[in-house]
Amino acid sequence: MEREALRFAIMGGGLIGREHAALIAATPGADLVAIADPAPAAAPVASEFGARHYLDYRTMLDEMRPDGVIVALPNALHAQAAIACVERGIPCLVEKPVADTLEAARDLVAAAERADVPVLVGHQRRHSPDIAKAKQLIEEGRLGRLVGVNAMWLADKPEAYFDAAWRKQAGGGPLLINLIHDIDCLRFICGDITEVMAFTSNSVRGFEVEDSASVSLRFSSGAVGTVLMSDTAVSPYNWDTAAGQALYFPHQPENAYFFSGTKAALALPSMDLWKHETEAGHWQDPLVKRHVTLDGSRAYVNQLAHFMKVVTGDAKPLVSARDGMMTLATILAIARSSRERRPVNPSDL
Ligand SMILES: NC(=O)c1ccc[n+]([C@@H]2O[C@H](COP(=O)([O-])OP(=O)(O)OC[C@H]3O[C@@H](n4cnc5c(N)ncnc54)[C@H](O)[C@@H]3O)[C@@H](O)[C@H]2O)c1
């Protein structure tokens, strides 16, 4: 028997909320029924998608009783909005970061686990075929033992991006908005991060929040890593433009992550796998480059398809609130390490 279309609602009709609306509208079996956002610009967005417009998200939840909700609000509102869904037994996809503080994240994790209502965190890159494949290759030992990773997220945001004041205040900033995606990917692919050491800088933009950072990582496997991040650097070295999997960025094929193991190296998102011709090969022997083929599927489309399975009870969240909280803890450990000029273990937070 054919299932009725799932009824979705969105909290926050801003930059990413509108993209979620368009994705739902383009997905068979999914209907967008309402958007809650008090901003005047949100009413025409709702009507463009044939959805009802609400000023208050709690009223929207109570009146519309959607099957699933996407929380696309400023970071500081994520936890309370997701808890409002959990309290009503409604599964939600909450944009990253899961919350702006660990206290708020803990409240959400406790509420979701107590009520057994699924919460999926919007780390959409985990649904991207290159990220999923890298995890698989490393877990299968195709790189031998993972030695380390070198990652970059470098891009130049325009001035107008910072008209939304939350983006340049504590709780916003590129550690929580951008680097969190890379850290989540690295945790997903390489395993938990047990120690971080970081330098941050706000010397270019001069905002309260950082504009650039360099980070050293230690993974529980013993592998180590480095990450360089800036939102004020002209560069193709960021996963969003390099992978062509982001929604509103040009595709500029390049690499952003370099994994090195005892038997092979892998660059992402090109999926170039470098190794010697024979097992006996070493640094004086040539390396051979092979390309690993992907399925061509799209990260945000896959994420929505997964969320639909979560809503119907056919899948557990690939990124649970607890998992999202550990990614958040790792980012907050990076911020603390820079402030206190010392290594920090995310678990100690
Ligand atoms: N996963 C991704 O690729 C991705 C991309 C961009 C943003 N994000 C995340 O999505 C979230 C939103 O980011 P954005 O860039 O769309 O921000 P935005 O400022 O463009 O949009 C946020 C919207 O929320 C609305 N809002 C504020 N308070 C509200 C309330 N109480 N009830 C309902 N609506 C309210 C605002 O009016 C605004 O329209 C952030 O957490 C950000 O980190 C994720």
Automatic annotation (TrEMBL):
Molecular function in Gene Ontology: nucleotide binding
A Pfam family assignment: GFO_IDH_MocA_C3
Record-annotated Gfo/Idh/MocA-like oxidoreductase N-terminal domain positions: 6-123
Domain GFO/IDH/MocA-like oxidoreductase: 132-263
Source superkingdom: Bacteria
Gene3D superfamilies in the cross-refs: Dihydrodipicolinate Reductase, domain 2, NAD(P)-binding Rossmann-like Domain
PANTHER family: BILIVERDIN REDUCTASE A, BLR3664 PROTEIN
Protein name: Putative dehydrogenase
Species: Aliirhizobium cellulosilyticum
Lineage: Bacteria, Pseudomonadati, Pseudomonadota, Alphaproteobacteria, Hyphomicrobiales
